[in-house]
Structures are given as C-alpha cells and as structure tokens.
Write a structure and sequence with these properties.
The chain has about 400 residues and is an all-beta fold. It contains no helices and 33 strands.
Amino acid sequence: MRRTRLLLAVATVAVTLTGGLVATSRNDVADAAVGPITWQDEFNQPAGTPLDQSKWKFDIGGGGWGNNEREYYTNSTSNVVHDGQGNLAITARQENPNNYQCHYGRCEYTSGRILTADKFSQAYGRFEARLKIPRGQGIWPAFWMLGGGNWPADGEIDIMENVGFEPNTVHGTVHGPGYSGAGGIGGGRTIGAPLADAFHQYAVEWSPNLIVWYLDNSEFFRITPSNINGNQWVFNHPFFMILNVAVGGYWPGYPDASTVFPQTMLVDWVRVSAWTDGGTPSPTGGLRSNFSNRCIDIPAANPVDGARLQLYDCNGSNAQQWSFNGDGTLRAMGKCMDPAGGALANGTPIQLVTCNGNPVQRFTLSGAGDLVNVSANRCVDVKDWNSGNGAQLQLWDCAGTTNQKWTRT
C-alpha cells in the first residue's frame, strides 16, 4: 500500500502458477539467520474487543492518502475489531454514519488503517502476517512498512498488496528516492484461485542489502541495491508496520455495481522475528554448506590473490573463518571473497583477493540462507552439485536449491 501510488504502472515481475505453489519453500532449508520472535499480536480476544492500542494506533481521516482513495479511516469498532474467532477484522463499509468529510466531499465509505508507529519498529528480520483478504473492484488491502514520516526518503516496503481487478495476484514492492509511486520496484505472484478464498501467509525477510518476499513460505521476489538503477538504497534503518483496507484510488480504480459491501480483511496474526546478524560486523565463524555439510575454505590456507575458494571438511582453521564487515565485504585471512575478474555472470568463479573497495566484493547472507553477491544479485553456488572436498564455488542465479544454502557455524 502506498500513500504513494500515483499511476497504474509499476515495475513488476509476475510468476503465474495454475495450481499450488511450487517454488522452493522456506521450510525446506535451514534458517540460521532468522532469530526469535521480537513482536507479535495473535488477536485472540473476545468478539467485540477493540484494537490493542499498546501495540497499534490508528490513522484517521479522509484526505485521499496521496492515492485519491475514497474511504474515511476511523477508530471505530465498526471498522476494526476482534471477531472472537482468533482474528482482527478490518472492514470497509459503504456508509457514513457521522457525516465524515473527505477530500471530494461527503465520504461514501469508512474503513480501518492501523500501524505500529511509535509503538514498535525494527531494522531487519522476518515480518509476516496470516491474512484472508477482501475482494471486489476498487478494494485495495495491504500489509506494508514505512521507515518514517519523510516519504520517500525514509523508504517503503510493501509486503502484500492486492487490487480487486487482479484477484489472484499478490504484489510486493519497494519505494525510495527516485523509485517511488509508479516507479516503485517490485514483483508479484499469481496463483490459480482468488487470494480472498482462503488465508495465506505474506512475509518478507529483510537483511542488509537484501529483501526477499514470500507467499505461503514460497519465495516470489527479491531485491538488492543492484536492482534500483543507481538510486539510493534506504532500507538500513527501523521500519514500522501498517495494515489497511483502502476503497478506490488511482491504481485499483473505484467500486462499481459489481462491488459488494462490507468487505473485511481478517488478520489471524502478525509476527516479527529478529535477524541474528543485525546488520553490523559479525563475529568470525565458518560458512557451512547445507548441501554437503562442508565449509567454505581457502585452499592450503594460502591467502594469495586469486586463490580459488572451495568446500572442505569443517575444521575451524583460519582458512575457514569468515567475517561479515560493515562495508559489506566477507573476509578471511585478511582478504575478501570476490567474483573472479569482477565478472557477475552465471559461472563466475569465487576467489580470494585483496580487499579493494570494489562494490562487487559485497556479499550478504539472507534470512533464508542465501549467500548473495549484492552487485550481481546472484548466489554463491556449489558448482556441479559436487559434495566432496575440493568442490568449487561459483555465482549462479538464486534458485533456492540446497547447493546455494549456507549456515553460520
């Protein structure tokens, strides 16, 4: 959701699935970088109980929110309330019981918009909600995050958006300076049935220089600084969460004769987990392949420029002790992990060289265990699925496969 989307167009990559989700599941891999739950709301209150305002607050008003929306957001239990079935119900209604005034005149609709600003924010981690979204032309549910009140400089991460004219599609998007509004950069997934037919889990895993989107624990999009066309990456500070159901706007269009009211988004739970490396230089340790249980190793403990990195039995030696540094480099024995020749294509060997400040030497370990070269937006991959000692490493398109999964030791 954006108080931001000014045009219909958006940079989007969509994947269409006619049946169930088939991409690699987060549950299929070890998840060393996602830590304990740091915040949650399970919404297990009796029917009619108002929102827990120790965790959330309301946005209120009908100014259009930068999108020419038609609703007036209230703090009424008519729009936001526990349903007694383990859910929070956020309901859009075609009514105006209190003569609310909107930017276009007397408001036609009411709805709810809740946020954790001033209550909870966090940098990095897994942000997730289990939702059953509403449906219909002109209906626009969203689960999203903002980095502050100075938009777009503070950044925006849209975890889930759906517009009524695309009932089967979830969108995930980022916005920042130079790529905001219609220029937001994102991806989508289209499944074989309307998302409103059932509960689904919507999540991002966010670590330094990498954000990954999931639908029902299946990745559908990822982004690094290499994807934002030289613009500023502004996703390195705490963000707060927002849930809302908008009615109308430039992007979704407006309700018509086919739209049925009321429309409710049910929120089963919202949970946030820590990211264990926290974005700061990490302690030195090994990087073990989930595929072979062997560690990334400098051959013969030889720290010369151009030494080709390999897998070898984990032994705790200096040749296997890697540290993530604040400049984004991954270092061992005083030198940096590096794509050979500065190349970023599939099959580029991974080597050890003197740290030189070249952006191609930046790597990040995602919450899902992907060791990603930030410039290439490709993963460190065990070449030819070789599980033996001496197996070589290369860059390859991130595929979620076990020969691309790594765990800190």
